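In keeping with the milestone schedule agreed at the kick-off meeting, the structural modelling team has produced records for the first pair of proteins. Each record is given below as a sequence line and a structure-token line. The laboratory manager (R.T.) confirmed that both were archived under the project's standard naming scheme.
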Amino acid sequence: MNAYQRTDGFSLMLPDGTTMPRLGQGTWMMGESEGKRQAEVDALKNGLTLGMNLLDSAEMYADGRAESIAGEAIIEYDRSDVFLVSKVYPWNAGRDRLSKSCEQSLKNFGVETLDLYLLHWREDADLAEVVYGMEELIDRGKIRRWGVSNFDTEDMEALWKVTDGKKCAVNQVLYNLGSRGIEFDLMPWQRERGIPFMAYCPVAQGGSLREELLNSGDVWETAQKHNATPIQILLSFVLRHEDMAAIPKAVSQEHVEQNAVVRSIRLSEDDIELLSRSFPAPGRKTPMEKV
């Protein structure tokens, strides 16, 4: 049973037949300064109040402190209304360490079960061991489902050859208007198999990863057309895919509210064509971008 059962028209279907919110909140770079902790907790709480009930974190983020910030933010909310995601280091993903990492993440969040647990990246992790350990965590009630992150097409193909590898629920990848590499082969590969995406850095860290995004006349023109900000257009570009969730990070109340409003923005085919004029879809295979 999926903890998240709300059907507000802005969720995606997972391979197990349950749903996941399509607009959430990321916690990367949270927990790195004690002086910012309360502001970060408040930001996540504000987002939850506005219906952005997907929270993404990882044991890597500030050595688990980001998980504890998310845990503090959800205390006042019904657990069934929050979809919690975390990620495990590849060197902690063997069956001898995976359980320990998961238990620590659960402790950091202050919960008994994660809705989704991801292998953060592949590196030299033994995929057969990873899948076995993930399925064991499901059997023990520690997680509801598992997935991967930063997996390119060849990685997914390798996963598919492993026993129970096809039970993968999600692949979390870097994707935004300026980083469209997955559209060439990974996106069609996963769609053939019904595996949805989670996009991290969906607005390129507020444009800092790709400064030309916020300097683009095409982005500004599209924003003016929709009475929106350029950041909102970048997020809308990602969320136009119905099989993709996005987890932007925001700390200020204004940015949190702006992210929430994006659910009402619908880009047209003409909008996509205009945006693609400056930032075209790839015409060939490109190395997967990671941050």
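The second protein of the pair:
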Amino acid sequence: MKIIFLNPQGNFDSRDSHWTKHQDFGGQLVYVKEIALALSKKGIKVDIITRKFRDEELSGFDATFDGYGGNDDVRIIRIPCGPAGFLRKELLWPHLAEWCENIAAFYASENEMPDFITGHYGDGGIAAVMLSKKWNIPFSFTAHSLGIFKKEKLLGTGETEKNLEKYFHFDERISAENLAIKYASKIFVSSSMEKFEQYAHDSYARSLTNSADKIMIVPPGANRGIFNESAHTEDSETAEKIKTEKQLIIMASRIDDKKNHIAVLKAFAGNKSLRDNSRILIVTRYDNDLYESLEGIPPSEKTVMEKWLELIRKNSMENEVIFYKSSDQRQLASLYRCARERKSVFCLPTLYEPFGLTVIRSDVMRIARRGNQKRRPFGYSLRKRNRVR
């Protein structure tokens, strides 16, 4: 069996080179990669289809083929559309029909058709609709997040609908999501809240009329080959980098205002007990000593970090807030193992988090510590405590 995963703005490469560098290089890539590799172990061939482009700042996406460590059953295939350079996801909509035509031509040249399609995010969803119709094969849809909730949140900040539409193209996104919802054979969500609250929104309910049973709740898991309690050689080096024996409050996510790091820094600043007994650790991907220099950091992230530093300096917290570089998941897992020994906690302060993979990965370490006690499934935090998290 062959499945294709459609990810127009999911920019995959063999070394996961640019994860978290841009909002289009986020958790969706982790999720799709792990599912593809897991399916390959069951004898299913998977092609991850993404967009081919050439860009000086985001290198490595101009070759047609890529893959993961010699696994011949999982291919990364890059298909061009639109201009030659990188495009953020909000600008891809006019080029998706061309992308689908080029995908169809690619498989015609290979003389081997896929058996099933799965579309990720709204753009992958509408691409799945087009290819499903062309090839007469079924598809599933995983939205990861739905556009109306982001739109409503931004409108609540005082932004005008006209300005939001100009940048985010919500009309196109929500229309694409509705078509994917209507025509998908199955829709995969990570929690009950997604199924019963998000998809029940008036913007989507009509597309699900009499077919809500096709929504499948499948909580995401974690790669236990990476996130596990077994000591690794890099753990001692990680412990040295942390430079404290105190309990840690860890935040690991993209550097973005909506991730809400600043709320934790403000709460910490005003709590003497926390300041005496713990340290905040913020995971970044930079070698810089951020207290010394923000040189080379993209403007969008630099603006967020400047707010952090202003608050930290105002409250004399330079010795209480640690910036820790983690460039891949193995380094992050090592950090969690060391933090577990200090009875540390993981904090996800986002006001709205549709998928929450960081919660699942950190929760694996907490579960592992309980030994033979009854284990909750990795999706527990999302299903039972979504709003609290």
